[in-house]
Design brief:
The chain is of the alpha+beta class. It is built from 14 helices and 17 strands. Helices cover about 40% and strands about 20% of the residues.
């Protein structure tokens, strides 16, 4: 389907959603929306109480989390308008999906690619336990060696310095370093790639593969990443630094960092979170943080996330994704929630002050203690305070397959731009859509 056809589908579906609501619900459509929003707000507040309290209050809040959505659905059904709500939601979802796809087609959502000569002596570090054993399941070692790569298989029982392994490989003549493993290992070797100015290969053999996801790589088949060794292109992306240590995704401070430090976290994540969060959210435990960036100061947030390029915001489908990795900025999200009303306000995107979002080149996170726990690309570390984070724009040369899934999700929805695309014929549409860059 063409870009303009997708934009028209988006407008027609959005209009159909409104028409169905108005024709079959009439003035009651306002009541439907109010009831739905109220249900969402109460559920959000109850969810916060589940996390922030123990005992009877937690159980009552958990009951509300189930009962309130159920009550809203039952009420919709009793007034005979449940089908109207479901049809409206489905058509609206189709409208948003088609509109985002049209904007992704028309805009430059892929980072600039540069042709390169295939590496002659690639070196790849592989963690056999990462991702539940993906290295063995996809025969990554055999496939990489068949393509001429030198492969080092890590021994989980005897930890090794992966950065030093990569440096020694470059000293021996390696013209590319890569990792089949988790994001924490990816970051350490990426730092060596920047240090020695050689390309970096990402193989999506970890558990979550956030970095691979935002590079547009195939997370379902890690062996597809190896295609970059024979038919690859180079993209230049940013690298984050926290007190000199590299990170490719993010550094978290506060509640999450404290939870993952617990020895019980790996064995029972949910129970550990529920046990520790009440004290952390009520500030009865954990550090008292402060964040400084570009003249803005946030005092005593419960959680702070500093990311290598900003995550999507303002659109639920963009949460957890970064459209670009080459903007030359850090994303900073801080959460300060003191009560259930603020929790509901954040979910409704109200300016309640509970959520602060910034983009910056440098940020300083401080606490009331001499040491601070940090969740760094999924790894738990302890650092002296204050902690300085910065971004190094375009320093990491990543070799990716020429043909890969790409980054489609996370494109911000812009109804004005979709309307212009739908009403404009031909390639001239690109120039007519503000904020959308032509390819």
């Amino acid at each position: 389907m063409s870009t303009h056809a997708k934009a028209r589908v988006a407008l027609l579906s959005g209009a159909a959603a409104l028409i169905v609501m108005l024709v079959f619900a009439g003035f009651r459509s306002v009541v439907l929306v109010v009831v739905g929003l109220a249900g969402v707000a109460v559920t959000a507040a109850a969810a916060w109480m589940v996390l922030a309290h123990r005992g009877p209050v937690r159980w009552l809040a958990a009951l509300l989390c189930v009962a309130v959505p159920a009550a809203v659905i039952v009420w919709y059904a009793r007034v005979g308008l449940l089908w109207v709500v479901l049809c409206t939601l489905l058509m609206w979802a189709l409208a948003v999906a088609a509109g985002r796809s049209a904007l992704a087609d028309e805009g430059r959502t892929r980072m600039p690619e540069h042709p390169v000569v295939p590496p002659k002596r690639p070196f790849v570090i592989m963690n056999p336990r990462s991702g539940g054993g993906k290295v063995g399941a996809f025969r990554l070692q055999e496939k990489a060696e068949a393509l001429g790569a030198e492969v080092v298989l890590l021994d989980p029982d005897h930890p090794q310095d992966v950065a030093e392994l990569a440096r020694r490989a470059v000293d021996r003549g390696a013209d590319l370093v890569g990792v089949a493993g988790g994001d924490g290992t990816q970051a350490l070797v990426a730092g060596v790639a920047v240090e020695r100015d050689v390309p970096f290969l990402v193989v999506s053999a970890g558990t979550r593969n956030h970095f691979a996801l935002d590079l547009g790589l195939d997370r379902g088949d890690p062996s597809a990443c190896l295609d970059a060794l024979t038919d690859g292109v180079e993209v230049r992306v940013d690298l984050g630094r926290i007190e000199g240590r590299p990170f490719v995704n993010n550094a978290s401070f506060g509640a999450y960092a404290e939870v993952v430090q617990s020895p019980a976290y790996r064995d029972d994540k949910i129970r550990t979170i529920l046990a520790l969060l009440p004290d952390l959210l009520a500030r009865r435990g954990g550090p008292r943080l402060s964040v400084r960036a570009d003249g803005t100061t946030v005092k005593e947030p419960q959680a702070v996330l500093v990311s290598n390029n900003p995550y999507g915001r303002g659109d639920p489908a963009g949460l957890g994704r970064r459209i670009r990795l080459d903007t030359g900025t850090l994303g900073v999200l801080s959460v300060k929630v003191d009560n259930a009303a603020q929790a509901a306000g954040i979910l409704r995107h109200e300016g309640s002050g509970g959520l602060t979002s910034l983009t910056t080149r440098e940020v300083v996170v401080d606490s009331d203690g001499p040491l601070m726990r940090v969740g760094l690309d999924g790894e738990s570390v302890t650092m002296p305070t204050p902690v300085h984070c910065r971004v190094e724009p375009g320093v990491l040369r990543v070799l990716v397959p020429r043909h890969r899934p790409g980054v489609r999700a996370g494109v911000p929805m812009n109804w004005s731009a979709v309307r212009r695309l739908a009403l404009t014929m031909g390639r001239a549409a690109s120039a007519a859509v503000p904020g959308v860059e032509r390819r």
